[in-house]
Give the backbone structure.
Amino acid sequence: MNRYPIPAKEARAEIIVINSRFIASAGPAFSVEQARNFIARIKSEFPDASHHVPVYLIGFGASSTAHCSDAGEPAGTAGRPALAVLQGAGLGDVVVVVTRYFGGTRLGTGGLVRAYSDAVREVLDILPRAERVPTHTL
């Protein structure tokens, strides 16, 4: 097992796209259970939001567990684009939830893909990084 970058702590970024608010929350998650707990916490923090799109990577590289969901958005417009950005960031053990408040104007499939991708990029730009170092106790 090699060293790899992970989130040092949680971060949040917000973008507005044609009156819709996209709030991206990111943080460390070292297991699927921790990722699910983070997702549940964000959902409870914004209970009146239109959508909560979760993505996570547990582990790093080829041995990672990846998950994404469109969370009610049209198929392929939210979860997969967000996961692609997350995978391209070179991080491991990370969870992101993009919360959307619908602003009254439909964005179309291309607009949704751009908005969810941009929201994940925004939060990754400000996310503090640390390094996971494997250790053995003797």
